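hiii so my PI (J.) wants the whole complex modelled not just the main chain, which honestly fair. so below is everything: two entries, each one labled with what it is. i double checked the lines twice but i was tired so who knows lol
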Amino acid sequence: MSEWTFIALLFIISMTFPAVPIVAGRVIGPRKPNPLKNSVYECGVETVGDTWVQFKVQYYLFALVFLVFDIEVVFMFPWAVAYNQLPLYGVISGVVFVILLAEALIYAWRKGVLEWV
Amino acid sequence: MADIFTTIYHWLFNLITGLGASEGLATGIIQFLGAFAIANFALLILVFNIWFERKVIARMQDRIGPNRVGPWGIFQTVADLAKLLSKEIIIPDGADLIPFMFAPVLAVGSVILIWAVVPFAKSAIGTDVSIGALYFVAAGSLGIMAILLAGWSSNNKYALLGAFRAVAMLVSYEVPIILTLLIPVLLTGSMRMNSIVDAQRIWYFFGVPLAAIIFWIGSVAEVGRTPFDLLEAESEIVAGYHIEYSGFAFAMFYAAEWAHGFAICALMATLFFGGWRGPGVDQFPTLGAFYFITKTFLIYFFQTWTRATLPRVRIDQVMNFCWKFLVPLSLLLLILTVVVDKVVALSGAIPAYLSTQSFAAMLPRTIVLLTVNLVVGGAALLWIARAGRVERERRAVQMAAIESGAAQQAGK
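here's the output for the full assembly
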Protein backbone atom coordinates (compact mmCIF):
# COMPACT_ATOMS: atom_id res chain seq x y z
CA MET A 1 0.00 0.00 0.00
CA SER A 2 2.69 2.46 0.92
CA GLU A 3 4.54 1.63 -2.29
CA TRP A 4 1.80 3.38 -4.21
CA THR A 5 1.30 6.29 -1.80
CA PHE A 6 4.33 7.92 -3.34
CA ILE A 7 2.84 7.64 -6.80
CA ALA A 8 -0.46 9.10 -5.60
CA LEU A 9 1.42 12.05 -4.08
CA LEU A 10 3.54 12.45 -7.18
CA PHE A 11 0.41 12.37 -9.33
CA ILE A 12 -1.10 15.26 -7.38
CA ILE A 13 2.14 17.20 -7.51
CA SER A 14 2.79 16.46 -11.19
CA MET A 15 -0.65 17.71 -12.18
CA THR A 16 -0.29 20.84 -10.04
CA PHE A 17 3.20 21.80 -11.14
CA PRO A 18 2.42 22.67 -14.76
CA ALA A 19 -0.98 24.12 -13.85
CA VAL A 20 0.58 26.83 -11.64
CA PRO A 21 2.59 28.61 -14.35
CA ILE A 22 -0.27 28.33 -16.83
CA VAL A 23 -2.61 29.99 -14.36
CA ALA A 24 0.10 32.53 -13.62
CA GLY A 25 0.43 33.14 -17.34
CA ARG A 26 -3.28 33.80 -17.61
CA VAL A 27 -3.14 36.20 -14.68
CA ILE A 28 0.09 38.02 -15.50
CA GLY A 29 -0.11 37.90 -19.24
CA PRO A 30 -1.96 40.38 -21.39
CA ARG A 31 -5.50 39.56 -22.34
CA LYS A 32 -6.45 41.45 -25.45
CA PRO A 33 -8.67 39.23 -27.53
CA ASN A 34 -9.66 40.55 -30.89
CA PRO A 35 -11.58 38.67 -33.59
CA LEU A 36 -8.60 38.31 -35.88
CA LYS A 37 -6.28 36.99 -33.21
CA ASN A 38 -8.80 34.52 -31.91
CA SER A 39 -9.75 33.18 -35.29
CA VAL A 40 -8.71 29.63 -35.98
CA TYR A 41 -5.46 29.23 -37.90
CA GLU A 42 -5.66 27.80 -41.40
CA CYS A 43 -2.47 29.04 -43.03
CA GLY A 44 -3.76 32.58 -43.24
CA VAL A 45 -7.10 32.05 -44.97
CA GLU A 46 -10.64 31.78 -43.70
CA THR A 47 -11.50 28.31 -42.46
CA VAL A 48 -13.39 26.12 -44.88
CA GLY A 49 -15.83 23.46 -43.78
CA ASP A 50 -16.44 21.75 -40.49
CA THR A 51 -13.66 21.53 -37.99
CA TRP A 52 -14.31 18.07 -36.73
CA VAL A 53 -13.28 16.22 -39.87
CA GLN A 54 -14.26 12.65 -40.45
CA PHE A 55 -12.09 10.19 -38.62
CA LYS A 56 -10.23 8.05 -41.14
CA VAL A 57 -10.71 4.44 -40.25
CA GLN A 58 -7.04 3.56 -40.91
CA TYR A 59 -6.09 5.33 -37.66
CA TYR A 60 -8.51 3.08 -35.83
CA LEU A 61 -6.98 -0.01 -37.43
CA PHE A 62 -3.49 0.94 -36.24
CA ALA A 63 -4.86 1.44 -32.74
CA LEU A 64 -6.57 -1.96 -32.94
CA VAL A 65 -3.41 -3.81 -33.95
CA PHE A 66 -1.54 -1.94 -31.20
CA LEU A 67 -4.19 -3.07 -28.71
CA VAL A 68 -3.71 -6.71 -29.67
CA PHE A 69 0.03 -6.49 -29.13
CA ASP A 70 -0.31 -4.48 -25.94
CA ILE A 71 -2.60 -7.05 -24.34
CA GLU A 72 -0.30 -9.81 -25.55
CA VAL A 73 2.68 -8.22 -23.85
CA VAL A 74 0.73 -7.62 -20.66
CA PHE A 75 0.08 -11.37 -20.57
CA MET A 76 3.74 -12.02 -21.32
CA PHE A 77 5.02 -10.01 -18.36
CA PRO A 78 4.20 -12.63 -15.70
CA TRP A 79 5.73 -15.25 -17.97
CA ALA A 80 8.86 -13.12 -18.27
CA VAL A 81 9.12 -12.58 -14.52
CA ALA A 82 8.89 -16.34 -13.93
CA TYR A 83 11.16 -17.12 -16.88
CA ASN A 84 14.26 -18.13 -14.95
CA GLN A 85 12.39 -20.85 -13.04
CA LEU A 86 10.44 -22.20 -16.00
CA PRO A 87 11.17 -25.62 -17.50
CA LEU A 88 11.53 -25.89 -21.25
CA TYR A 89 7.87 -26.58 -21.96
CA GLY A 90 6.96 -23.38 -20.10
CA VAL A 91 9.20 -21.43 -22.41
CA ILE A 92 7.90 -23.24 -25.47
CA SER A 93 4.28 -22.47 -24.54
CA GLY A 94 5.21 -18.80 -24.20
CA VAL A 95 6.91 -18.97 -27.58
CA VAL A 96 3.81 -20.57 -29.12
CA PHE A 97 1.74 -17.68 -27.74
CA VAL A 98 4.08 -15.18 -29.36
CA ILE A 99 3.99 -17.09 -32.65
CA LEU A 100 0.17 -17.04 -32.65
CA LEU A 101 0.30 -13.30 -32.33
CA ALA A 102 3.00 -12.98 -34.94
CA GLU A 103 0.58 -14.85 -37.16
CA ALA A 104 -2.01 -12.16 -36.40
CA LEU A 105 0.52 -9.53 -37.51
CA ILE A 106 1.20 -11.37 -40.75
CA TYR A 107 -2.55 -11.63 -41.38
CA ALA A 108 -3.01 -7.91 -40.81
CA TRP A 109 -0.03 -7.18 -43.06
CA ARG A 110 -1.36 -9.27 -45.92
CA LYS A 111 -4.83 -7.80 -45.55
CA GLY A 112 -3.36 -4.34 -46.13
CA VAL A 113 -4.31 -3.04 -42.71
CA LEU A 114 -0.82 -1.70 -42.11
CA GLU A 115 -0.73 0.56 -45.17
CA TRP A 116 -0.68 4.21 -44.29
CA VAL A 117 -3.63 6.31 -45.39
CA MET B 1 28.56 10.51 3.78
CA ALA B 2 28.80 7.10 2.24
CA ASP B 3 25.07 6.70 1.83
CA ILE B 4 23.74 10.23 1.78
CA PHE B 5 20.18 9.30 0.85
CA THR B 6 19.59 6.95 3.76
CA THR B 7 21.26 9.45 6.09
CA ILE B 8 18.93 12.23 4.98
CA TYR B 9 15.92 9.93 5.26
CA HIS B 10 16.76 8.93 8.82
CA TRP B 11 17.53 12.50 9.83
CA LEU B 12 14.19 13.74 8.48
CA PHE B 13 12.34 10.81 10.01
CA ASN B 14 13.81 11.44 13.45
CA LEU B 15 13.13 15.15 13.09
CA ILE B 16 9.47 14.67 12.24
CA THR B 17 8.77 11.94 14.81
CA GLY B 18 10.65 14.07 17.35
CA LEU B 19 8.09 16.78 16.73
CA GLY B 20 5.40 14.35 17.86
CA ALA B 21 4.09 12.94 14.58
CA SER B 22 3.30 9.26 14.22
CA GLU B 23 5.53 7.03 12.12
CA GLY B 24 3.01 6.72 9.28
CA LEU B 25 2.63 10.47 9.04
CA ALA B 26 6.40 10.91 9.09
CA THR B 27 6.78 8.48 6.19
CA GLY B 28 3.99 10.25 4.37
CA ILE B 29 5.60 13.65 4.82
CA ILE B 30 8.98 12.37 3.69
CA GLN B 31 7.35 10.76 0.65
CA PHE B 32 5.67 14.06 -0.15
CA LEU B 33 8.98 15.90 0.11
CA GLY B 34 10.59 13.26 -2.07
CA ALA B 35 7.84 13.58 -4.68
CA PHE B 36 8.24 17.36 -4.61
CA ALA B 37 12.01 17.01 -5.04
CA ILE B 38 11.65 14.62 -7.97
CA ALA B 39 9.10 16.82 -9.74
CA ASN B 40 11.40 19.80 -9.25
CA PHE B 41 14.38 17.86 -10.51
CA ALA B 42 12.54 16.70 -13.62
CA LEU B 43 11.58 20.26 -14.53
CA LEU B 44 14.69 22.12 -13.42
CA ILE B 45 17.12 19.81 -15.17
CA LEU B 46 15.20 20.88 -18.28
CA VAL B 47 16.72 24.34 -17.99
CA PHE B 48 20.18 22.85 -18.16
CA ASN B 49 19.24 20.34 -20.86
CA ILE B 50 17.83 22.90 -23.28
CA TRP B 51 20.99 24.99 -22.98
CA PHE B 52 23.18 21.90 -23.34
CA GLU B 53 21.37 20.73 -26.44
CA ARG B 54 21.36 24.14 -28.10
CA LYS B 55 25.10 24.55 -27.53
CA VAL B 56 25.94 21.03 -28.70
CA ILE B 57 23.78 21.23 -31.84
CA ALA B 58 25.25 24.64 -32.57
CA ARG B 59 28.80 23.35 -32.34
CA MET B 60 27.90 20.43 -34.57
CA GLN B 61 26.57 22.96 -37.07
CA ASP B 62 29.77 24.99 -36.85
CA ARG B 63 28.26 27.91 -34.98
CA ILE B 64 28.30 29.01 -31.35
CA GLY B 65 24.74 28.90 -30.06
CA PRO B 66 23.35 31.17 -27.39
CA ASN B 67 26.13 33.17 -25.76
CA ARG B 68 24.61 36.53 -24.86
CA VAL B 69 22.43 35.91 -21.84
CA GLY B 70 24.82 35.09 -19.01
CA PRO B 71 28.26 33.51 -19.30
CA TRP B 72 28.20 31.05 -22.20
CA GLY B 73 24.49 31.76 -22.53
CA ILE B 74 23.49 29.66 -19.54
CA PHE B 75 20.55 31.89 -18.68
CA GLN B 76 19.10 31.69 -22.18
CA THR B 77 16.47 29.12 -21.18
CA VAL B 78 15.45 31.21 -18.18
CA ALA B 79 15.02 34.20 -20.46
CA ASP B 80 12.99 32.14 -22.91
CA LEU B 81 10.70 30.81 -20.20
CA ALA B 82 10.24 34.29 -18.74
CA LYS B 83 9.32 35.58 -22.19
CA LEU B 84 6.79 32.78 -22.70
CA LEU B 85 5.30 33.50 -19.30
CA SER B 86 4.60 37.05 -20.33
CA LYS B 87 2.83 36.16 -23.58
CA GLU B 88 -0.89 35.93 -23.93
CA ILE B 89 -2.46 32.49 -23.98
CA ILE B 90 -4.77 32.98 -26.94
CA ILE B 91 -7.87 30.83 -26.79
CA PRO B 92 -9.20 30.28 -30.29
CA ASP B 93 -12.87 30.74 -31.19
CA GLY B 94 -14.97 27.76 -30.37
CA ALA B 95 -12.22 25.92 -28.56
CA ASP B 96 -13.26 23.55 -25.80
CA LEU B 97 -11.78 25.28 -22.79
CA ILE B 98 -11.30 22.52 -20.24
CA PRO B 99 -9.49 19.99 -22.46
CA PHE B 100 -7.63 22.88 -24.07
CA MET B 101 -6.16 23.93 -20.72
CA PHE B 102 -5.80 20.42 -19.36
CA ALA B 103 -3.80 18.98 -22.27
CA PRO B 104 -0.46 20.70 -21.51
CA VAL B 105 -0.87 19.91 -17.82
CA LEU B 106 -1.39 16.24 -18.62
CA ALA B 107 1.55 16.23 -21.04
CA VAL B 108 3.99 17.50 -18.42
CA GLY B 109 2.36 15.53 -15.62
CA SER B 110 2.80 12.23 -17.44
CA VAL B 111 6.53 12.87 -17.84
CA ILE B 112 7.01 13.71 -14.17
CA LEU B 113 5.18 10.50 -13.26
CA ILE B 114 7.84 8.47 -15.11
CA TRP B 115 10.48 9.68 -12.66
CA ALA B 116 8.80 7.91 -9.75
CA VAL B 117 10.41 4.59 -10.65
CA VAL B 118 13.83 5.74 -11.82
CA PRO B 119 16.57 4.58 -9.42
CA PHE B 120 19.13 7.31 -8.86
CA ALA B 121 21.12 5.17 -6.42
CA LYS B 122 20.53 1.95 -4.56
CA SER B 123 18.57 3.69 -1.81
CA ALA B 124 17.31 6.64 -3.85
CA ILE B 125 14.31 5.67 -5.86
CA GLY B 126 10.90 7.33 -5.68
CA THR B 127 9.16 4.06 -5.06
CA ASP B 128 10.32 0.59 -6.02
CA VAL B 129 6.94 -0.74 -7.09
CA SER B 130 6.81 -4.39 -8.01
CA ILE B 131 5.75 -3.50 -11.57
CA GLY B 132 8.22 -0.69 -12.20
CA ALA B 133 8.99 -1.69 -15.77
CA LEU B 134 5.32 -1.75 -16.77
CA TYR B 135 4.56 1.44 -14.84
CA PHE B 136 6.77 3.76 -16.84
CA VAL B 137 5.25 2.57 -20.13
CA ALA B 138 1.79 3.25 -18.72
CA ALA B 139 2.78 6.69 -17.41
CA GLY B 140 4.29 7.62 -20.76
CA SER B 141 1.05 6.68 -22.46
CA LEU B 142 -0.82 9.40 -20.58
CA GLY B 143 1.09 11.91 -22.65
CA ILE B 144 -0.43 10.40 -25.79
CA MET B 145 -3.89 11.21 -24.49
CA ALA B 146 -2.74 14.78 -23.92
CA ILE B 147 -1.90 15.07 -27.62
CA LEU B 148 -5.35 13.95 -28.69
CA LEU B 149 -6.98 16.31 -26.17
CA ALA B 150 -4.91 19.18 -27.54
CA GLY B 151 -5.73 18.42 -31.16
CA TRP B 152 -9.42 17.87 -30.55
CA SER B 153 -10.07 20.88 -28.34
CA SER B 154 -8.28 23.37 -30.59
CA ASN B 155 -11.22 23.65 -32.98
CA ASN B 156 -8.72 23.46 -35.82
CA LYS B 157 -8.95 20.72 -38.41
CA TYR B 158 -5.21 20.72 -39.00
CA ALA B 159 -4.52 20.36 -35.32
CA LEU B 160 -6.94 17.44 -35.29
CA LEU B 161 -5.31 15.75 -38.27
CA GLY B 162 -1.90 16.34 -36.71
CA ALA B 163 -3.13 14.81 -33.48
CA PHE B 164 -4.45 11.72 -35.30
CA ARG B 165 -1.14 11.20 -37.07
CA ALA B 166 0.78 11.77 -33.87
CA VAL B 167 -1.29 9.32 -31.87
CA ALA B 168 -1.12 6.68 -34.62
CA MET B 169 2.66 6.94 -34.67
CA LEU B 170 3.18 7.07 -30.91
CA VAL B 171 0.86 4.18 -30.27
CA SER B 172 2.58 2.07 -32.94
CA TYR B 173 6.03 2.62 -31.46
CA GLU B 174 4.87 1.47 -28.05
CA VAL B 175 4.85 -2.09 -29.40
CA PRO B 176 8.61 -2.48 -30.03
CA ILE B 177 9.25 -0.74 -26.71
CA ILE B 178 7.19 -3.16 -24.66
CA LEU B 179 8.39 -6.19 -26.62
CA THR B 180 12.05 -5.37 -26.04
CA LEU B 181 11.30 -4.33 -22.47
CA LEU B 182 10.40 -7.96 -21.84
CA ILE B 183 14.05 -8.93 -22.34
CA PRO B 184 15.67 -7.14 -19.37
CA VAL B 185 12.67 -8.22 -17.30
CA LEU B 186 13.09 -11.86 -18.15
CA LEU B 187 16.85 -11.77 -17.68
CA THR B 188 16.36 -10.29 -14.23
CA GLY B 189 13.28 -12.25 -13.22
CA SER B 190 11.59 -9.19 -11.79
CA MET B 191 9.92 -5.99 -12.94
CA ARG B 192 11.28 -3.88 -10.09
CA MET B 193 13.62 -1.26 -11.49
CA ASN B 194 16.05 -1.59 -8.59
CA SER B 195 16.26 -5.35 -9.12
CA ILE B 196 16.95 -4.86 -12.82
CA VAL B 197 19.84 -2.53 -11.98
CA ASP B 198 21.05 -4.81 -9.21
CA ALA B 199 21.31 -7.76 -11.56
CA GLN B 200 23.46 -5.94 -14.09
CA ARG B 201 26.96 -6.86 -13.04
CA ILE B 202 27.53 -7.02 -16.75
CA TRP B 203 25.40 -4.36 -18.38
CA TYR B 204 22.52 -5.74 -20.41
CA PHE B 205 23.65 -3.63 -23.32
CA PHE B 206 26.57 -6.03 -23.79
CA GLY B 207 24.30 -9.05 -23.60
CA VAL B 208 21.34 -7.90 -25.67
CA PRO B 209 22.53 -4.95 -27.78
CA LEU B 210 19.87 -5.46 -30.44
CA ALA B 211 17.09 -5.25 -27.83
CA ALA B 212 18.72 -2.08 -26.48
CA ILE B 213 18.88 -0.54 -29.94
CA ILE B 214 15.25 -1.39 -30.74
CA PHE B 215 14.20 -0.02 -27.33
CA TRP B 216 16.14 3.15 -28.04
CA ILE B 217 14.66 3.65 -31.50
CA GLY B 218 11.16 3.05 -30.12
CA SER B 219 11.75 5.49 -27.27
CA VAL B 220 13.08 8.22 -29.52
CA ALA B 221 9.97 7.79 -31.68
CA GLU B 222 7.79 7.82 -28.55
CA VAL B 223 9.18 11.18 -27.54
CA GLY B 224 8.96 12.66 -30.99
CA ARG B 225 12.64 13.49 -31.33
CA THR B 226 14.46 13.70 -34.62
CA PRO B 227 14.50 11.70 -36.77
CA PHE B 228 10.90 11.15 -35.73
CA ASP B 229 9.90 14.72 -34.99
CA LEU B 230 7.36 14.85 -37.76
CA LEU B 231 4.70 15.29 -35.11
CA GLU B 232 5.51 18.93 -34.72
CA ALA B 233 7.65 19.46 -37.78
CA GLU B 234 8.01 23.19 -37.52
CA SER B 235 8.90 23.61 -41.13
CA GLU B 236 6.20 21.39 -42.55
CA ILE B 237 2.88 21.19 -40.79
CA VAL B 238 3.43 24.35 -38.74
CA ALA B 239 3.10 22.78 -35.34
CA GLY B 240 0.78 19.80 -35.65
CA TYR B 241 -1.44 19.28 -32.68
CA HIS B 242 -0.31 22.39 -30.79
CA ILE B 243 -0.89 24.98 -33.54
CA GLU B 244 -3.35 26.95 -31.44
CA TYR B 245 -1.23 27.05 -28.27
CA SER B 246 0.73 30.14 -27.30
CA GLY B 247 2.37 31.54 -24.22
CA PHE B 248 2.99 29.24 -21.33
CA ALA B 249 0.62 26.51 -22.50
CA PHE B 250 2.92 26.07 -25.50
CA ALA B 251 5.91 26.22 -23.18
CA MET B 252 4.47 23.29 -21.29
CA PHE B 253 4.26 21.16 -24.43
CA TYR B 254 7.80 22.18 -25.28
CA ALA B 255 8.94 21.33 -21.76
CA ALA B 256 7.10 18.00 -21.87
CA GLU B 257 8.89 16.95 -25.05
CA TRP B 258 12.35 17.84 -23.71
CA ALA B 259 11.69 16.37 -20.28
CA HIS B 260 10.43 13.16 -21.88
CA GLY B 261 13.57 13.07 -24.02
CA PHE B 262 15.68 13.21 -20.88
CA ALA B 263 13.48 10.68 -19.09
CA ILE B 264 14.02 8.06 -21.79
CA CYS B 265 17.77 8.54 -21.48
CA ALA B 266 17.42 7.85 -17.77
CA LEU B 267 15.33 4.74 -18.48
CA MET B 268 17.78 3.51 -21.10
CA ALA B 269 20.62 3.97 -18.62
CA THR B 270 18.67 2.06 -15.97
CA LEU B 271 17.50 -0.83 -18.10
CA PHE B 272 20.49 -1.46 -20.34
CA PHE B 273 23.50 0.41 -19.00
CA GLY B 274 23.49 -0.61 -15.37
CA GLY B 275 21.85 2.48 -13.87
CA TRP B 276 23.73 3.35 -10.74
CA ARG B 277 26.22 0.49 -11.07
CA GLY B 278 29.90 1.25 -11.28
CA PRO B 279 33.17 0.69 -9.46
CA GLY B 280 32.90 1.35 -5.75
CA VAL B 281 29.12 1.58 -5.32
CA ASP B 282 29.04 -1.20 -2.76
CA GLN B 283 31.13 0.80 -0.32
CA PHE B 284 29.84 4.26 -1.26
CA PRO B 285 26.21 4.10 -2.39
CA THR B 286 26.20 7.84 -3.02
CA LEU B 287 28.56 7.28 -5.92
CA GLY B 288 25.68 5.50 -7.65
CA ALA B 289 23.86 8.78 -8.23
CA PHE B 290 26.96 10.21 -9.87
CA TYR B 291 27.30 7.20 -12.21
CA PHE B 292 23.62 7.31 -13.06
CA ILE B 293 23.67 11.01 -13.96
CA THR B 294 26.83 10.58 -16.01
CA LYS B 295 25.39 7.69 -18.00
CA THR B 296 22.12 9.55 -18.55
CA PHE B 297 23.92 12.60 -19.85
CA LEU B 298 26.15 10.56 -22.14
CA ILE B 299 23.07 8.95 -23.64
CA TYR B 300 21.46 12.40 -23.85
CA PHE B 301 24.51 13.63 -25.73
CA PHE B 302 24.08 10.73 -28.13
CA GLN B 303 20.43 11.71 -28.60
CA THR B 304 21.44 15.31 -29.31
CA TRP B 305 24.06 14.07 -31.76
CA THR B 306 21.38 12.04 -33.56
CA ARG B 307 19.20 15.11 -33.67
CA ALA B 308 21.91 17.23 -35.21
CA THR B 309 22.74 14.64 -37.82
CA LEU B 310 19.71 12.82 -39.14
CA PRO B 311 16.97 14.23 -41.38
CA ARG B 312 13.33 13.84 -40.62
CA VAL B 313 11.48 10.77 -41.89
CA ARG B 314 8.03 10.74 -43.49
CA ILE B 315 4.98 9.41 -41.68
CA ASP B 316 4.41 6.45 -44.00
CA GLN B 317 8.10 5.52 -43.79
CA VAL B 318 7.81 5.72 -40.02
CA MET B 319 4.77 3.46 -39.85
CA ASN B 320 6.20 0.93 -42.30
CA PHE B 321 9.45 0.85 -40.37
CA CYS B 322 7.62 0.12 -37.16
CA TRP B 323 5.10 -2.47 -38.23
CA LYS B 324 6.99 -4.19 -41.00
CA PHE B 325 10.48 -4.18 -39.55
CA LEU B 326 10.75 -3.40 -35.84
CA VAL B 327 7.81 -5.45 -34.61
CA PRO B 328 8.66 -8.66 -36.52
CA LEU B 329 12.29 -8.18 -35.54
CA SER B 330 11.41 -7.75 -31.86
CA LEU B 331 9.20 -10.85 -31.94
CA LEU B 332 11.90 -12.88 -33.66
CA LEU B 333 14.53 -11.63 -31.23
CA LEU B 334 12.33 -12.46 -28.25
CA ILE B 335 11.61 -15.99 -29.46
CA LEU B 336 15.21 -16.80 -30.33
CA THR B 337 16.57 -15.25 -27.14
CA VAL B 338 14.32 -17.22 -24.84
CA VAL B 339 14.67 -20.51 -26.69
CA VAL B 340 18.46 -20.42 -26.98
CA ASP B 341 18.90 -19.11 -23.45
CA LYS B 342 16.63 -21.75 -21.91
CA VAL B 343 18.18 -24.60 -23.93
CA VAL B 344 21.68 -23.61 -22.88
CA ALA B 345 20.56 -23.14 -19.26
CA LEU B 346 18.85 -26.53 -19.07
CA SER B 347 21.52 -28.45 -20.89
CA GLY B 348 23.75 -27.96 -17.89
CA ALA B 349 26.78 -27.49 -20.09
CA ILE B 350 27.69 -24.32 -18.21
CA PRO B 351 27.44 -24.45 -14.41
CA ALA B 352 25.76 -21.57 -12.56
CA TYR B 353 24.49 -20.20 -15.86
CA LEU B 354 21.77 -18.06 -14.31
CA SER B 355 23.84 -16.55 -11.53
CA THR B 356 24.25 -12.80 -11.25
CA GLN B 357 26.73 -12.89 -8.42
CA SER B 358 29.76 -11.60 -10.18
CA PHE B 359 31.06 -10.33 -13.47
CA ALA B 360 32.71 -13.63 -14.32
CA ALA B 361 29.62 -15.63 -13.37
CA MET B 362 27.44 -13.62 -15.75
CA LEU B 363 29.91 -13.85 -18.61
CA PRO B 364 28.76 -17.15 -20.21
CA ARG B 365 25.13 -16.03 -20.39
CA THR B 366 26.14 -12.66 -21.77
CA ILE B 367 28.19 -14.28 -24.51
CA VAL B 368 25.37 -16.65 -25.48
CA LEU B 369 22.84 -13.81 -25.63
CA LEU B 370 25.28 -11.59 -27.49
CA THR B 371 25.75 -14.26 -30.12
CA VAL B 372 21.99 -14.58 -30.63
CA ASN B 373 21.64 -10.80 -30.85
CA LEU B 374 24.46 -10.43 -33.34
CA VAL B 375 23.09 -13.22 -35.51
CA VAL B 376 19.58 -11.77 -35.53
CA GLY B 377 20.90 -8.22 -35.97
CA GLY B 378 23.19 -9.23 -38.79
CA ALA B 379 20.38 -11.12 -40.52
CA ALA B 380 18.08 -8.12 -40.11
CA LEU B 381 20.65 -5.75 -41.56
CA LEU B 382 21.30 -8.01 -44.52
CA TRP B 383 17.56 -8.38 -45.11
CA ILE B 384 16.91 -4.66 -44.93
CA ALA B 385 19.87 -3.93 -47.20
CA ARG B 386 18.49 -6.37 -49.73
CA ALA B 387 14.97 -4.95 -49.39
CA GLY B 388 16.37 -1.44 -49.83
CA ARG B 389 18.28 -2.48 -52.94
CA VAL B 390 15.20 -4.14 -54.43
CA GLU B 391 13.15 -1.01 -53.70
CA ARG B 392 15.77 1.27 -55.22
CA GLU B 393 15.96 -0.84 -58.39
CA ARG B 394 12.17 -0.83 -58.63
CA ARG B 395 12.16 2.95 -58.33
CA ALA B 396 14.94 3.30 -60.89
CA VAL B 397 12.91 1.25 -63.33
CA GLN B 398 9.85 3.34 -62.55
CA MET B 399 11.71 6.60 -63.05
CA ALA B 400 13.19 5.35 -66.30
CA ALA B 401 9.71 4.47 -67.52
CA ILE B 402 8.43 7.93 -66.57
CA GLU B 403 11.34 9.68 -68.23
CA SER B 404 10.82 7.79 -71.40
CA GLY B 405 7.24 9.00 -71.28
CA ALA B 406 5.91 5.48 -71.42
CA ALA B 407 4.20 5.02 -68.02
CA GLN B 408 1.80 7.17 -66.01
CA GLN B 409 3.05 7.85 -62.53
CA ALA B 410 1.28 5.65 -60.02
CA GLY B 411 1.78 8.28 -57.33
CA LYS B 412 3.52 7.52 -54.07
